[in-house]
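Follow-up to my earlier ticket, as requested here are the two runs.
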Amino acid sequence: MSDAKRRTLADLQRAVGLQVDDEGLLSELASGLADVEATLRDVVHSDVQFVNDAAVHLVDAGGKRFRPLFTLLAGQFGGKDREKVVIAAAAVELVHLATLYHDDVMDEATMRRGAQSVNARWDNAIAILTGDFLFAHASRLVSDLGTDPARIIAETFSELVTGQMRETAGPRDGDDPIEHYLSVIAQKTGSLIATSGRFGGMLSGARDEHVESLRQFGETIGAAFQISDDIIDIASPSDELGKAQGTDLREGIRTLPMLYAMSDDKANSRLMELLAAPLTEDADVAEALGLLRDSSGLEHARETLTDYARRARSELATLPASPARDACESVTDYLAARTH
């Protein structure tokens, strides 16, 4: 394995907590990710320079690449059709990138992965259309893999959009806010990671029960990542986050620790007042963060995260012992540890 590939893979491992001790698996993952990157750039290329610049903007910005990495890992449980697994890995990353273009418009974001967001560099219309452009190319890639993968990616699109719509609308009258939140993150975050595992397994020829375990693991670990991020946004100082604390508070987004705190009959009345609307003043954000850290909500969210990590690990128990399974297990350990 080249030094460049090793450094790239090491950076990705640190970002998602993946621990790979087997040199052969490391080499295969590094080679697979290099092929995914090449596929991404080839697929989104356009002879129209303006379209090309917008399309490669987030590809060049990098990111965790967890979804293609998990697709490649899941492909280890079958061991066949490596080319198809790489294509699927590139497709799920294209879908993820497309959702980021759309998310930045909805969030009115100005930065993404340390670079200026497309909506800020150009405008909202270009960002939305570029996201659509990436969705189209993801669909084209998957169509070459067969009817079942094409159906699965269409169903995944539906889950992603439904989750986003439900989050935007909020819980309806009579809905439990916590159950609503957990089901939304299963759709918004868990569904695409579930499809990553499913694609890797089925396209590599893994047994049906192993494909299902990989799908379930992906959905659960995807939701766990979101819960973990919710906790860190409150519990970690800005210098560790690499961004301002309390982003969700500033945007008026009620994350799991907040919802648990609000469901506590003994909740601090000042905290309830602060959580009633987006916070624009730094002093109010700092006060809310302090009250949340002292509330039952943060610890309750950590307990839920631990349960999700346990459930994810239990899905892996049905898979054959291998370096790939060990690598997946390491992610569950990392998720629980990163919030303490």
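Run two:
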Amino acid sequence: MRFRDVFLGIVALWLLSGCAPEPQMLGAPTRTFPTRVLAAITSTSLPALPTTSVVPSGCGDAACGDIPHYELDASLDWETHTLQVEQRVRYTNTTAHTLASVVFDVEPAREPNIFALAEVRNGGRPVRNYALESTRLVVPLLQPLDPAASVQIVLRYTLTIPQIQNGYHYGHLGYWGYSARQVNLGMWFPLVAAYDPVAGWQSPTPHHVGEHFELAEGDFFVRLRVRNAPAGLRVAGAGQVARPERDVWEFSLEGGREIALSLSPDFHTLTTTADGVRVMLYYLDDPAVKIPEAPRHALQTAADALALYSELYGPYPYTRLVVVMGDFPDGMEFSGLVFVSEAWFRLWSGTPDDWLTIITAHEVAHQWWYALVGNDQGHAPYLDEALATYSEALFFERYYPELLPWWGNFRIIAYEPSGNVDATVYDFQSARPYINAVYLRGAQMLADLRLTLGDEVFFAWLQAYCAHMSGRIATPRDFWGQMSPDAYRATAPVREQYLRQPDVLAASDRIP
């Protein structure tokens, strides 16, 4: 598919390809915002939630399907910031091997005194010879699990929620933590590890730069009770939501990589719809926000991004998109929910040429390049981060085309990015070189690929890749393998320029 403003598109590609003059800041634009989304914002308060459960209790064979099914009963003590959790996981062996154990990734265990495992049960019987090393939990099964057979594992544990730290180095992990006004539950419970048919269970090594997750698709149901809750507490979460009791919230999400929640007594909400999807913004009413329209702009950006990416990549996978103003730096993606830093709301200039626009559009893109199409974020981070960054350019190209040169200079060229796009997170010890190589050079690579292939072939390739790998964990071979042999040969110079391993595909990998 082609965009109408060809000239500005070529200018943007030129900027991204590194052929631009020295970076310069453009003056603030004078255009007014489109009103089609703003006019559809109908509420500033959360409507009443259903009082009946969002899913039936229990999970029979037919109801669960083949992907892992998680049910969590969690009790949060607001005053002590502790969680008591009983987690039931039904796992079906979709591998071709008989399994002697099931492995979980336990992200909260990366720091001491956070995750305390009290009990493990398999089929109602206690398991005592489990092993938790770093973030890898190995649960031996009482009997071998044959292909297509299922097992239920129960975990009981206590979580001590950490306080969100100041500064970027640890503060960006604030999606799991609490501040004076917010509790964020992201990557907060054990998740069944991905399984590789050759290498077996995959347990990513935690790293302080970027993300390192490799998450299989699952279905999730969370029943959260909040004790000692402050007045006016609201809970943001993805999927279907209900409030069967005053202090109980329930969330059900099908086909996610995880499920994240955010709680605050200071939340206000705005809602709209885009492409038939309900888009909700939970924001903190902060007097430090200089321009009161910042939440509306964030909601507009999210709704516009959802509509555009649905058109370019394929349908949005959920019925709701939740955007949460987070009390930590930058932003973070989860299935059906994204965080955008309070700093970008607070510092918003009142015009679209700002970080609030960029980061919101970026995080929404992760609903396709992470939530829908998974990847090994530690070893092949460009499969989600480069695509999400280039999606920012597509957002500006569609909605603010006169700002595309600004975006190219401000976001890419000003940093003089270098490095291999296919680097791993473990190649970096600080964030800036990682972002420059994977995010920014990755966006340059995609711009050059588009220029080489033309819009029709380029976007058809991304759509085919998204459809083929939906619900799965993609590898670089999957990404490049969706190209035709002619397209793959034509893009060889681009791969040579940006990748340290440019010949990604063997002959047998290529589409005939």
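The only thing I checked on run two: The CA atoms of residues 105 and 136 lie 5 Å apart. Let me know what else you need.
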